[in-house]
Design brief:
Strand content: 15-25%
Low-confidence stretches: 338-346
Number of helices: 16
Largest sheet: 10 strands, mixed
Radius of gyration: 23 Å
CATH architecture of the largest domain: 3-Layer(bba) Sandwich
Helix content: 25-40%
Structural class: alpha+beta
Oligomer: single chain
């Protein structure tokens, strides 16, 4: 990737994207697949921030339906269907139960979810239905039976967010895009007031590059305002960040395949308890924050809130000592007073500054593809790119595989799975688990280093595998082994290994209960 950057020299890129989360990666896939020369620069690792810290749902948003935001729900349900079709190795049907404890909840939620089904149209995942008390307890045996009248079953999508991000990066690369993590844009270059490129520092080598570009797109999520300030100091902020926290528990707290949706928490949000990689993820919260950070930390009151809310619905209430991992993410919520709006559509915002800088922000994982399409269309109408049609509606995402057994090891690699199995077959030691409490084998670390731009122990244990989110203590315990495997692939010395392990231990302390 660095060689491709250097080979471009002074020739401007058609499309330069700052930010390697869901939005930026989606734009890179869209732009590259339309045949534009495309460069994406990410200051940390792909999906380091919000995009690896979601509730792991590809969904229309039952909550938005409740709020009456029909247009957003229709679009999200449509995109859910497209994503499941294009990334069948990462997106699966997930059944949800809304437990009913009051007489009116069954008819009320039943009708609402029938509307949700109808809105899904041909891209629906299955019909919703009312459940008796017995059926509800059969599907979710650890639900509190006292006062339970029944439930409503409905279907939504579930996925692995960071794995989808890596697959999108590989898709963009397969379309000719150049993507670099650990490359920070520290300056916007201008000619006669118009953006002509960026200055970027490679965080690993320390080398600085001057990069020319016809169109520059700011897709930096919660860091959006930093780039806007770089473009025009004194600009009013457009992001109001909000923190969402999740806790991860062992599967026995909610055995079976079904997830639980609690439609009303004390703060008016919905609460999800979702099976994921043989654990249960429970969340989320909504806490306004003043400062944005690459490593947001859960507040004790947020963790207590989740434990308190879910305990009302389970026969065995979880405690802090049951938590395997805690993770926090920041939502890039758009301030509604923004005036510089070139295109305000659904829950994402696209603006074009007088310098030509295009900013896309807001949105959610489910609608990443549509956000990207809108952004590249804006680059065509406002940024002077030649008019070429979007191709991502039908474009398979890297790894796309027609038949996937979601219980099989390595399923999330899709069509890459045989190559990883071949690594373990060639060297049986690579078939060994990284840790007895984690589902990952050593070959996955080798693959990540060779094929997935994995540069650090954190990349390997947080996003190439999801060890840190599944069991933070186990992730810390296998960090030295992962550092050794990476060092062998990346040509690093013992001092690098020691430093990596220490940095990962420090980082992991925020994930431990």
């Amino acid at each position: 990737m660095l060689q491709a950057l250097e080979a471009q020299g002074d020739k401007p890129w058609d499309c330069l994207i700052i930010g390697g989360g869901a939005t930026g990666l989606g734009v890179a896939v869209d732009a590259a697949s339309r045949g534009f020369s495309t460069l994406l620069l990410e200051q940390y690792d792909f999906a380091k921030g919000t995009s690896s810290r979601s509730t792991k749902l590809v969904h229309g948003g039952v909550r938005y339906l409740q709020q009456g935001n029909i247009k957003l729900v229709m679009e999200a349900l449509h995109e859910r269907g497209i994503l499941r079709r294009n990334a069948p190795h990462l997106v699966k049907d997930q059944s949800f139960i809304v437990p009913n404890y009051k007489w009116w909840e069954g008819p009320y939620y039943g009708l609402g979810l029938k509307v949700y089904d109808w809105m899904s149209g041909k891209l629906g995942l299955g019909p919703s239905r009312l459940l008796s008390r017995e059926e509800t307890l059969e599907l979710a045996p650890t639900l509190d039976a006292e006062g339970l009248r029944g439930g409503v079953l409905y279907h939504d999508g579930q996925f692995d967010d960071a794995r989808l991000a890596i697959s999108l990066a590989m898709t963009a690369a397969g379309q000719g895009g150049v993507l670099l993590n650990y490359c920070q844009v520290d300056r916007l270059l201008k000619e006669e007031g118009k953006i002509s490129g960026v200055q970027v520092v490679d965080g690993i080598s320390g080398q600085t590059y001057t990069v020319k570009a016809g169109t520059v797109i700011n897709a930096t999520g919660v860091f959006t305002d930093n780039i806007l300030q770089m473009d025009e100091p004194g600009t009013a902020p457009i992001i109001a960040p909000s923190q969402g926290v999740h806790i991860v528990l062992d599967k026995h707290f909610l055995p079976g395949e079904a997830a639980i949706l609690v439609p009303h928490t004390d703060d008016g949000r919905v609460l999800f308890a979702v099976p994921w990689h043989d654990k249960i993820i429970i969340g989320t919260t909504d806490t306004p924050v003043q400062e944005v950070s690459a490593e947001p930390q859960a507040l004790p009151k947020e963790v207590d809130f989740i434990l308190q809310q879910i305990s009302r619905y389970l026969t065995k209430p979880p405690s802090r000592t049951d938590i395997r991992s805690i993770f926090a993410g920041l939502r890039p919520l758009v301030k509604s007073s923004s005036k510089r709006t070139a295109e305000l559509s659904r829950d994402h915002l696209i603006t074009v500054a007088s310098s030509g800088l295009i900013t896309v922000t807001g949105g959610k994982w489910t609608t990443y593809r549509r956000m990207a399409e809108d952004t590249v269309n804006t680059a065509i109408t406002k940024g002077g790119l030649p008019d070429r049609p979007c191709r991502t509606m039908e474009l398979p995402i890297h790894g796309s595989s027609p038949s996937v057994d979601f219980h099989a090891p390595l399923y999330y690699y899709g069509s890459d799975t045989p190559a990883i199995r071949a690594l373990a077959a060639a060297d049986p030691s690579l078939g060994q688990l990284l840790h007895s409490r984690l589902p990952y084998i050593r070959a996955e670390i080798i693959w990540a280093a060779r094929e997935e731009l994995c540069m650090t122990v954190e990349d390997a244990l947080s996003r190439r595998t999801r060890a840190l989110l599944l069991d933070a203590a186990a992730a810390v315990e296998c960090a030295p082994l992962v550092a050794e495997l990476l060092a062998g692939e990346l040509g690093r010395d013992a001092a690098w290994q020691a430093r990596q392990v220490e940095e990962f231990r420090t980082l992991s302390s925020h994930y431990l209960p």
